[in-house]
Write a structure and sequence with these properties.
The protein is an all-alpha fold. It has 19 helices and no strands.
């Protein structure tokens, strides 16, 4: 009996699904829109100048290719474990174990940071309650949402995402009017800032460093392949959302960043300040009243959405790991009525409570240091996707399986993605800006690999001992 057969779920421990097409559509949009766009992009603009457009374009192309590869595998074999399951099947158990736990760690740890940001914003508005009190309220509220049927999670994400989409569309309209000199307020006009101080004022190196930072902003696009397994027609939903990732990245990221660098000097000191950010600075220069309050509301919505998605994704990854025997079997226990893996939800929220405790005891700086271990997990995920797709495609072709959704220009674009990711990791180490992130993430990955290999050897030994006792041939 295989490992997967030993750890299959019983009927009472099965995800019941319930996500609708409109939920998945909005979730696929929300996956690539977060606080990294509204606030974090300002730091990249200040670093690379207007040429930051190239950084976002380069990072976006990498994500589009990774999503196409993931879509090919997910359409052929939909699974709530997504790329972790495919790495297990295509590369080996240690790979699925490692990338699954790394991904879980990323989202579980990110929840603590999102709770912190939400607490800071709410405390700024209503200082009567400490920031950790608001963070605790947000955390408990979204845990309750994830305890309910997955349809409730889909509804919350739908409305969270809709707010973000409306905000970005409004910004694109206002910014476009200002670029063509039709916006009557504010001081920002035309495209003069695009070349006023040079398109690439800090050289090619700054664009490369910015692109490395930009790649982290896109992680989340792959969540839809996890969620699609809980829909009525996973293959159709994955094809639709994977195809739409192209225009989503081009419009929401490249489009809005283009407008910002046209209207705002790249060396505006407010751009790189976390209390302001690119959208706030741009809206202020456009004469929009209460720009900071508006952006703070959008960021609050974004971090709540990200927390909600992170908790959902982390709990489903634990569920999948448990099904494959790579996590304790209790992680796949689901509610009798809701079909939600509530144990996985509780375990996944542990770092959020750690962050709240650190906020209450003024030790949040330590959490910032620990966050560095998540720095390059996105690149490890994309690398696992590329390697898995490469091996799985050859395997399926050998079996005569006809794929309905394929990666472009296989295998050349797949090899190109692998080379680019490895080159990016090497550049991070050599250049130095993200050296700690690479080191800490690699150390964490190494520890998880060792754990996976030990677990694999232990299971093989147990199986052999069982065969010897039963007298079956080894």
């Amino acid at each position: 009996m295989s490992r997967n057969q030993n750890h299959t779920t019983t009927p009472k421990n099965t995800l019941k699904g319930g996500l609708k097409s409109r939920h998945l559509t909005m979730m696929s949009i929300a996956g690539v829109i977060g606080a990294a766009l509204f606030v974090g992009s300002g730091k990249q603009i200040a670093l690379a100048g207007p040429a930051v457009i190239l950084a976002y374009l380069g990072g976006g192309i990498l994500v589009i290719l990774a999503m196409r590869m993931l879509g090919e595998m997910a359409v052929a074999q939909p699974d709530t474990g997504s790329f972790s399951t495919y790495a297990d099947r295509a590369i080996g158990r240690w790979a699925g174990f490692t990338i699954g736990w790394l991904y879980w760690y990323f989202w579980a740890f990110l929840m603590g940071w999102e709770a912190y940001v939400a607490g800071q914003i709410l405390h700024g508005w209503f200082p009567q309650v400490p920031d950790w009190g608001y963070a605790l309220f947000i955390t408990v509220s979204l845990i309750i949402v994830n305890f309910m049927n997955v349809r409730n999670y889909g509804e919350f994400e739908f409305w969270f995402a809709l707010i973000k989409v409306i905000a970005i569309v409004a910004f694109l309209i206002i910014g476009s009017l200002a670029v063509v000199h039709l916006w009557p307020w504010g001081e920002a006009r035309g495209v003069s800032q695009l070349t006023a101080q040079g398109f690439m004022p800090n050289g090619v190196k700054s664009v490369v460093v910015a692109m490395l930072g930009v790649m982290f902003a896109f992680i989340g696009a792959e969540i839809v392949t996890v969620a699609a397994a809980e829909s009525a027609d996973p293959a159709r939903e994955i094809i639709k959302t994977t195809r739409s990732v192209v225009w989503r990245i081009c419009l929401f990221y490249v489009g809005s960043i283009f407008l910002i660098v046209c209207l705002v000097p790249y060396n505006d000191p407010l751009l790189s300040q976390p209390t302001h950010g690119s959208y706030n600075v741009a809206l202020s220069r456009l004469g929009v009243p209460h720009a900071q309050a508006i952006v703070n509301f959008i960021v609050l919505t974004s971090v709540c959405s990200c927390f909600n998605s992170a908790l959902y994704t982390a709990s489903r990854m634990l569920y999948s790991l448990s099904r494959r025997g790579d996590a304790h079997r209790i992680m796949q226990v689901t509610g009798r009525r809701t079909g939600t893996p509530y144990v996985g939800v509780l375990v996944s929220s542990v770092f959020a409570f750690v962050a709240i405790w650190m906020m209450a005891t003024s030790k949040m700086d330590l959490y910032d240091v620990l966050m560095q271990a998540t720095g390059t997990i996105a690149l490890f995920v994309y690398l696992a996707i590329a390697l898995s797709q490469l091996r799985m495609r050859y395997r399926l072709q050998a079996q005569g399986v006809e794929l309905t959704f394929k990666m472009w220009l296989f295998p050349w674009l797949t090899y190109a993605v692998i080379v680019c990711i490895i080159a990016a990791l090497i550049t991070m180490v050599v250049e130095g800006t993200y050296r700690n992130e690479v080191a800490y993430t690699s150390l964490l990955a190494g520890v998880i690999v060792v754990m996976g290999l030990v677990a694999q050897r232990w299971e093989i030994g147990t199986r052999r001992r069982g065969l010897q006792v039963s007298g079956a041939p080894g």
